[in-house]
Amino acid sequence: MMMNHTLKSQCKVNPGTRITGKWHSNKYMIMKELGFGANGVVYLARHNDRQVALKISDNGMTITSEVNVLKSFAKVQGSGSLGPSLLDVDDWQTSRGPLSFYVMEYIHGPDLLSFLQQKGKAWMPVLFLQLLNDLARLHENGWVFGDLKPENLIISGPPPKIRCIDVGGTTIQGRAIKEFTEFYDRGYWGLGSRKAEASYDLFAVAMIMINSAYPKRFNKTTSGIAQLKEAIRARPELQQYESVIIKALQGYYSSAGQMRSDLLDCMSDDKGAVHTKGNTTGTKTNSKKVQNAHQSQPLTRQRYRKSKKKRGWMEFFTIALVVAFLYALYIFLKLQ
Amino acid sequence: MYTGKIRQILLITDGCSNQGEDPIAMAALAKEQGITVNVIGVMEHDVIDEKGMTEIEGIALSGGGVSQIVYAKQLSQTVQMVTRKAMNQTIQGVVNRELQQILGRSQTMEDLPPEKRGEVMEVVDELGETVDLEVLILVDTSASMKHKLETVKEALLDLSLSLTARTGNNHFSVFVFPGKKNNVEKLLDWTPKLQSLTSIFSQLSTGGITPTGPALRAALTSFEEKRSLRSLLSNDDESYFEESV
């Protein structure tokens, strides 16, 4: 998105500046700029020897609206939640007029894509399972994150934990999505509305998974799912998750929990891994084969469950037999 | 809750007007009638010239709206952002006036302590979701815009997608200038969905002149016709949000 330059210069604060709140008179020392978005600039600041993140905007409305979201996050999730915790809200009286700001916990770490690049792909499912868990809680409380994208996802730690640093797009369920980024927006791909629903976020999660294999993203050529399916099949590291990604893209999941358990199934399914190995050789020449493999994947999972069930019965009989034998022995001893 | 509606003109252009009355005066006239004028300047690789830039900012300023200069590529996102921002501005204006009535003097949202603002903001959000919206889109089809029209069309369909996700009703109308015969031509009459735009839009012929002023005047007339038609039909007094700020 195009940055409004007048906005940026207005909120430009030099390192070393001391900011004192008009209402609560807390003092903050600006250390450096962390980043800027369409609605303001975020700084690293120091308050009583504690590092905090401070967001300034000349638009009081966006500050108030984001503060509302952070407050309701705190109410439902407690600490260690997806978003940063809110510390202070205030105005700063400058010579050019008042600027609204809020102060939040400073979440430090690499963003999702750089983390995956540094630490390897093994972390991918772990982080997505974490993310889906957090999203499930968020959705249960009537919110939809909206502008979900890797730039906004920070891996803090250790131990590594996925956190989200920009809550500007968070919307009450059932309303229209406030903020979005085209690549992660199902409306842009012609695959759904911009109504705030759990499935809107899950579409974005699927796109972030695709994004992890295509760090530079790609442009839309045709609307619809065909291009995305193609993209998934062209990358071997995505094929293990293909069924989950495609289901999420098509709006099949109505809750983050469903997607999470399917993702877990993908992980524990050894046969799935064998399939993907076969697929990697197949994709270049035969896309039909891949389709077959994709269709057969749920079947193998079913078979796996069935065999598990059978094993369950075996266990039951063995235990029953042992108990019966012991009881018979007990009776026999009593009779003597 | 409000039963009012928000009326906006969205002007998409790439430069300076060169025919007819002053567009800035027309924008001021719109504002007086409670209609906000927003302007999006579309540029290619180069920057829009100084004169065009001043005019774009001037129209939005006197029209009480928002202006933004973008590359054609970013148009979709900007169109929806500008519309939403302007809508929120209008709603905030209304809410501020309500606050003044309740609290007296020149109290606005900024004079409230941050803790109280949150509750007011919830009202603004709620209104933004439920209020009825009328957007008249005015597209510059002068020669230099020719190869950007496809992008404009996509941006408008995208806008329709964003706005129809709201609970409130939407009405759109599309005008292009210059038209085939006149300065301005109505491409699409008031409709709740922009989807019907697809077929006509790509066959547009482009002209040489840029009569921005007359186009804005025609847009105002269209709003008036809509209002009088509505009152004839339903015979009830509609309350409109009036521009403030």
TrEMBL record, chain A:
Residues 276-285 have a biased composition (Low complexity). Residues 28-317 form the Protein kinase domain. PROSITE patterns: PROTEIN_KINASE_ATP, PROTEIN_KINASE_DOM. One of its GO terms (molecular function) is kinase activity. It holds the Pfam family Pkinase. The chain crosses the membrane at residues 313-333. Gene3D superfamilies: Phosphorylase Kinase, domain 1, Transferase(Phosphotransferase) domain 1. Residues 288-300 have a biased composition (Polar residues). Residues 275-305 are annotated as: Disordered. Keywords: ATP-binding, Kinase, Membrane, Nucleotide-binding, Transferase, Transmembrane, Transmembrane helix. ATP binds at K55. This is Serine/threonine-protein kinase YabT. The gene is yabT.
TrEMBL record, chain B:
This is VWFA domain-containing protein. Residues 1-91, 134-245 form the VWFA domain. It comes from Neobacillus kokaensis. The lineage of its organism: Bacteria, Bacillati, Bacillota, Bacilli, Bacillales. It comes from the Bacteria. Gene3D superfamilies: von Willebrand factor, type A domain.
